[in-house]
Amino acid sequence: MNVPKEMRETYEVISKLLIKYSEEYLNKEYEELCLHALEKLCRKRPSPLKSGRSNTWAAGIVYAIGSNNFIFDKSQPIHMTAKELVTPFGVAASTASSKAAQIKKLLKIDYSRAEWCLPSKASGNPMLWMVSINGLVFDARMLPVEMQEICYEKGLIPFVPAYKKES
After folding, report:
1. Distance between terminal CA atoms of the chain?
2. Computed from CA positions of residues 6, 12, 14, 19, in that sequence, does the dihedral angle turn out positive or negative?
3. At 166, is the pLDDT very low, low, confident or very high (cuts 50, 70, 90)?
4. Given a cut of 70, is residue 89 above it in pLDDT?
5. Contact (Cβ atoms closer than 8 angstroms) between residue 49 and residue 119
6. How far is CA 7 from CA 39, 41, 129, in A?
7. Among residues 126, 165, 131, which one has the least CA distance to residue 148?
8. What would the pLDDT profile of 12-57 be if each residue is shown by its tens digit?
9. Which whole number is the average pLDDT over 109-117?
10. Which domains, ranges and CATH numbers included, belong to the chain?
11. 132 CB-near residues (< 8 Å, 6+ apart)
């Protein structure tokens, strides 16, 4: 945990909410992404977490991470409505949605960043694999292994697909 001293108490309170929620409604992958987001929010200068209620921030974090990973899509293994997602936190869906929008902007959470994608979903997210080579866009999964290695070394893709076994 890399959280500034002045934010540790806030981190502890919100992290307990996120862990409890993840254990009951989500899974370990979601928990880790939510805690990662919380840690980054604590390190912001000034941290937005200094104002507002802990349960509202926790709901916003779960909403931001969940929506980025299609939690509202019924075809996903873990899915729920916005109301179902936020009810345990005791906040309105509109409040959580607003907080999530703020969090997404602050942390640059979007579909094309592997940092905010569930690891189990990374190989199936086409946005993570688009790379531009000499102005042409390619799916890195279709490139030769040598080029995949270069893309990985440059941080353009989350892993070298040729070396990763599908689970």
Report:
1. 29
2. positive
3. very low
4. yes
5. no
6. 9, 10, 35
7. 131
8. 999 999 999 999 999 999 999 999 999 999 999 999 999 999 999 9
9. 87
10. 5-111 (1.10.472.10), 125-163 (no CATH)
11. 138
With 0-12 CB in 10 A as exposed, 13-18 as middle and 19+ as buried, what is 75?
exposed
- Contact (CB, 8 A) for 64 and 100: yes
Mean pLDDT of the chain: 91
Count of residues in the chain: 167
**Location of structure tokens 């996903």:** 76
Tokens (6 digits) for 39: 């840690």
3-state secondary structure of 132: strand
The tokens describing 88, both together, are 């345990």
Distance between CA atoms of 167 and 164, rounded to whole angstroms? 9
Q: Is the pLDDT of residue 1 over 70?
A: no
Distance (Å) of CA 124 to CA 98, 108, 112? 28, 21, 12
pTM, to two decimals: 0.85
